[in-house]
Amino acid sequence: MNSDPLIDFARALVQRPSLSCQEREVANRVEEEMKALAFDEVELDEYGSVIGVIHGAEPGPTLLFDAHTDTVDVTGGVAWERDPFSGEVADGFLYGRGSADMKGALAAMIHAAAGVDRSRTKGRVVVSASPMEEVLEGVALEAVMRSFPPDFVVIGEATDLNLARGGRGRAEIHLETIGVPTHSSAPHLGRNAVLDMMKVIAGAEGIELADDPLMGPAILALTEISSAPFPANSVIPSICRATYDRRLIPGETEEDVLEPFHSLSRVHELNLHAIVGLGEYVTFTGSPLSQKKFFPAWVFPEDDWFVVQALRGLTGKGLSPDVGAYRFCTNAAYSAGVAGVPTVGFGPAKETDAHLVDERLRLEDLKAAAMGYSGIIEGVLGTNS
Hints:
CATH topology of the largest domain: Aminopeptidase
Radius of gyration: 23 Å
Helix content: 25-40%
Strand content: 25-35%
Strand order of the largest sheet: 1-2-6-3-7-20
Number of helices: 9
Number of strands: 21
Distance between the termini: 39 Å
Order of helices and strands: HHEEEEEHEHEEEHEEEEHEEEEEHEHEEH
Largest sheet: 6 strands, mixed
């Protein structure tokens, strides 16, 4: 067994299941590691984020690293070849749920921050292990940023060791058509809400979506549909509900994503309600979190000071990153998209490695990520930066 402390810690995180709202065991292990590595401050906030702080020898800016502790479930009809919570190391990879998304990055951040040369650092490094990202991007991070206001933020989601200067956002659109119930032997006396929804779905296929040169096109995907009453015993359904996942590009607003559906309602003379959904959860600490599910896209110019310094820090560690953007939504939807704090993304694994059966992370990439985080710290907070 490899006895590298970074790998051992990443394995320990993978071995602790941590669905959204159930991250306590991982949070406890993170808190234990931060204290063992002599972080200057370690605390657990009301929503379950574990926050560790390293103080430099001189005053200066706050550089916040964020990685989420929750994972998606192990579901589906395809069996895993390896136990998803074994944290098995084999063939140069760490296997298990959360290895790529994103417990490996979290482990690398913590070890990189702990290794900082305080005597050559101005300002402070804050590492946030935040819960609930898989369901409410950026909501737990918002609370961290209130307690430790950052000047710069690094998101550790997968970039394949490249640098992200922007990212798509996400909106969850809830649609409801309302018809008139009647006995199914006389459908002409009512109005079938499912047939009305079919018109909406057909029309949605023709909605023109914007395209961004850095992030690619906006996306609209139907993810759920249901009707009521269910079961409909000889009754024409009077309600039909559908959910769309809408991936956002910079500049898009709630009005932008809802207006096409309002237009379809007018064209087809439907009784259609279209809203952005509300996410309501209770964290493992018992605190409620509630947020409208609209998480904006974000982008910073390639010559932004923080982007340049982060890139310089990475190359100084021997990495050769490309500069691009996330194609999915991250906690940066809050740090950059809402709060406007300069933010970059950097992490091991590819975007497409997340949520897979037999999820895995290359060990060399895990180590390179830790080096990269150290480079960003030196590039932004070093006394010679």
